């Protein structure tokens, strides 16, 4: 009924499931004159379906294992808490305070679905326990449900961080949410949807990484420049009397990609469609970069 204080306690296999805290509950660090502070510790604590009616605090607590599945933890603070071994599946947490919590390191994933390092969109600091628990073998339906549960938890954490104003971290959790959805599509054998998500991750980081758009654009410019050089596709008069150097092809590719079109170089007749295709892709990529950049600025 009143405020509950558990600072400095050590809980072993404590069961708080279905408990309703009608006032604030404090499990945070106990500060003492002798030791300075003493953290509250939890070993296999069960808070599933617990209800924190007016919020609470787990600031500075140590969790060896804890389950907040289907709990209502609105306005509960986890500042400075290592959440490696904490599960939040199904929890109502849109207004929890998570911006200063710590998260697990990303485990190795199948190289088939892993992006090159320089284009990686996943932040290895923000990985939830539900993802680490996803089985790598066994029944496919169990894995699909595990991916779905992790996706939902990432989504709720994203909403919580957005409400805190931690938009950068919210973006990272959005990326993880999309990654869980992409991997779920893979296990459901919905390969076209998986491919669309993979391309989105590669090109834009699901709309969160402007650097991916720039890297993709530079790769496209380089590809077309090499193609122009190998094919001898451009000349200064458009008639093919001038054999272009690689630097000239890079210049022409960049001008074509950005749709500037100075006119000092032109594609020869049989390669005009090649230049048109680059101009079309370039216009699309520029619009895509403005969209991604504008999304970040609007936040």
Give the topology.
Elements: E1 4-5, E2 10-12, E3 20-21, E4 25-26, E5 41-43, E6 45-46, E7 51-52, E8 56-57, E9 62-63, E10 66-67, E11 76-77, E12 86-87, H1 129-132, H2 140-164, H3 167-187, H4 191-204, H5 210-231, E13 234-235, H6 246-257, E14 266-267, H7 272-298
Parallel strand pairs: 1-4, 2-5, 3-7, 4-8, 5-9, 6-10, 8-11, 10-12
Antiparallel strand pairs: 13-14
Helix pairs in contact: 2-3, 3-4, 4-5, 5-6, 5-7
Can you give me a brief rundown of this structure?
The chain is an alpha/beta fold and 299 residues long. Helix content is 42%, strand content 10%. The strands form 5 sheets. It has a 4-stranded parallel sheet, with no helix packed on it.
Q: What sequence of helices (H) and strands (E) makes up the elements?
A: EEEEEEEEEEEEHHHHHEHEH
Globular, elongated, flat, extended or rod-shaped: what is the shape?
elongated
| Class from secondary-structure proportions | alpha/beta
Low-confidence stretches: 107-121
| Share of residues in helices | 40-55%
Give the strand tally. Answer: 14
Provide the residue-averaged pLDDT: 84
- Beta-strand content estimate: 5-15%
């Amino acid at each position: 009924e009143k405020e509950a204080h558990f600072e400095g306690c050590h809980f072993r296999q404590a069961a708080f499931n279905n408990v309703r805290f009608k006032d604030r509950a404090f499990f945070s660090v106990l500060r003492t004159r002798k030791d300075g502070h003493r953290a509250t510790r939890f070993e296999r604590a069960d808070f599933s379906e617990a209800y924190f009616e007016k919020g609470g605090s787990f600031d500075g607590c140590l969790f060896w294992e804890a389950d907040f599945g289907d709990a209502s933890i609105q306005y509960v603070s986890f500042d400075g808490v290592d959440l490696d071994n904490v599960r939040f599946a199904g929890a109502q947490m849109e207004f929890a305070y998570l911006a200063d919590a710590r998260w697990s390191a990303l485990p190795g994933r199948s190289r088939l679905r892993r992006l090159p390092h320089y284009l990686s969109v996943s932040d290895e600091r923000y990985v939830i326990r539900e993802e680490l628990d996803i089985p790598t073998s066994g029944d496919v339906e169990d894995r699909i449900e595990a991916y779905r549960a992790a996706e939902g938890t990432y989504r709720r954490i994203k909403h919580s961080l957005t409400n805190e104003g931690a938009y950068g971290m919210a973006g990272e959790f959005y990326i993880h949410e999309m990654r869980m959805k992409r991997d779920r599509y893979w296990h459901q054998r919905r390969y076209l949807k998986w491919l669309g998500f993979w391309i989105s991750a590669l090109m834009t980081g699901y709309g969160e990484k402007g650097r991916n758009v720039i890297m993709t654009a530079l790769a496209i410019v380089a590809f077309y420049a090499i193609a122009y050089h190998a094919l001898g596709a451009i000349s200064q008069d458009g008639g093919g009397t001038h054999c272009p150097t690689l630097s000239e092809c890079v210049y022409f590719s960049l001008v074509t990609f950005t749709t500037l079109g100075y006119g000092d170089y032109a594609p020869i007749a049989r390669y005009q469609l090649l230049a048109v295709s680059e101009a079309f892709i370039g216009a699309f990529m520029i619009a895509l970069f403005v969209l991604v950049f504008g999304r970040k600025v609007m936040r």
